Amino acid sequence: MKPLYPLLALLALAACQRSEPTNASALAAQPAVAPSTPALTVNRVKGSWARLDGDYMLVIGEIADGGRADVRYFNPSPINVAWGSVKLDANAIQIQVELRDRNYPGCLYKLTYSPDKDQLIGTYFQAQMQQTYEVLFIRK
Q1: For a designed S-S bond to 140, which of 13, 45, 48, 103 qualifies (C-beta 3.0 to 4.6 A apart)?
Q2: Domain extent at residue 87
């Protein structure tokens, strides 16, 4: 028969180890973690946006789960929108809007939402002239 001393020593050592608190009062005593920045969601871009260099207005309404968005565009009269999309991509909200109307044959906005400035920043492709312009929209 082997001596029990090594086994008793292991049991005594295990009993002396400190365990983490599991009751509510012990957890409440732990320091609070600072709240994180609110999550960026596509709904942040809903609303009316005015372009700074003219009477251009972009209105973003409902956004479906797949990114398809109800978008209207005015210059200052309504211009037909072929499609609009709003998607969260790598922690940035990307907006694309294609116009299809008289004098707007496939013009395209590619915008990114800037949360710190609450602005839409990007480009506008003017299809008839085959030129791309930098644009900025501010919330109305």
Answers
A1: 48
A2: 44-139
Cα–Cα dist 117/129, whole Å: 31
This prediction has a pTM of 0.72
DSSP SS3 for 60: strand
Collapsing DSSP to helix, strand or coil, 111 comes out as strand
- The CATH number linked to 125 is 2.40.128.30
Helix (H) or strand (E) run with residue 13 in it: helix 5-16
Residues 6 or more apart whose CB falls under 8 angstroms from that of 90 comprise none
Query: What one-character DSSP code corresponds to residue 126?
Result: E
Evaluate whether 122 touches 110 at the Cβ level (below 8 Å).
yes
Residue 4 inside a domain? The answer is no
Question: Of 98, 97, 51, nearest to 76 (Cα)?
Answer: 51
Angstrom distance (rounded) from CA 84 to CA 45: 13
- 16 Cβ contact partners less than 8 Å away, ≥ 6 residues apart: none
Q: Which amino acid is located at 81 in the chain?
A: V
CB 97 within 8 A of CB 135: no
Instruction: Name the least confident of 5-19, 29-43, 64-78, 113-127.
Output: 5-19
